[in-house]
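agent> Task received from the user: take the single chain below, predict its 3D structure, and emit structure tokens. No templates, no multimer pairing.
agent> Plan: (1) validate residues, (2) run structure prediction, (3) serialize to tokens, (4) report one or two observations.
agent> Step 1 OK, no nonstandard residues flagged.
tool_call: predict_structure(input=
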Amino acid sequence: MLRSSVVRTAVAPDGPTLDSLLHHYVDAGEPLSCEPVAEGLLNRGYVLVTTHGRFFLKHHLDGDRTGIARQHRATRRLAALGLPLAPPRARADGRTVTVLDGRCYALHPWVEGEHLGGAALSPGQSRHLGALLGLVHTALEQVMRTGSAPRRTPRPQRSAEPARTFEMIDELLAMARGTRPRTSFDELAEHRLRERRTLLARHAHRRPADPAAAATGWVHGDFHPLNVLYRDAEPAAIVDWDRLSVQPRAEEAVRAAAIFFVRPGGTLDLAKVAAYAGAYRSARGADAGELAAAVHRVWWERLNDFWMLTWRYRLGDRRTDPQFPAASALAVWWTREYEAVRDAFTG
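)
tool_result: status=success, residues=347
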């Protein structure tokens, strides 16, 4: 269901585990093969072929059964409303989670499709994408209204403090400069860190206030090209709902656009952003002020964020290295073209 460029190091469940798993389902068949197709921080995925067809088997690494059950109820209800999803299959006893040897598994239908970034989307498809996310937010408000709320609604995350960001920049700079053998990536990282330090010093007074509670609601939490499958020109399934949570809705719309419509050189395709954002506002009923505030907060977030360099230098994980050139350039370009970006989102 999700194809990814991530290194495939996950070990598939063995035969006895698959036999035990499929025993809980009606007409799932007998296992023939099970191969890794994706590995993430919150789950691992496998293509499971049985005598009755092909499935997507998901192993939830965090084992949060309450959260998984909430996610499953939400996706099943959203699918019932006609949204393109691939909710888990129910077992014979009606449950959607199987726990084997302490591991939580869910069985989903296999969805054929491909992932499309903004460069592959037409203006019409960009509008459709924005409308789809707006419908997701509206429908989540409906299906999560009762019986699914967390015990405590999380507070919106406070905006980054420049003083802490400067400390992080200094730490990452030392790591980049001390890396041997030194590569072109290390040189780019050093350049971007020094550049960002200058920008932050210049714009520190623009740190946004905390978001208003009224702007929050249930969101997908990780809406980006690898989590939307297309079949031909239409979205076939929105996948990976592990980060389903209560957050500022418009900020998810802005973050998604900044991933879908970023160009290799670190600029945004503002014509497609405008088409997407206009459709989102119409579908969600969001006004220009809400989007403008979200643009400001996500811009500030990007200006203070170095998670890709943290992965590389602190964790030794280089999976996000190919994304860094465009993402780091985007923060600089966005700062320079702030008004144009805001206008694209607000119409």
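agent> Step 4: summary for the user.
The CA atoms of residues 271 and 344 lie 7 Å apart.
agent> Done.
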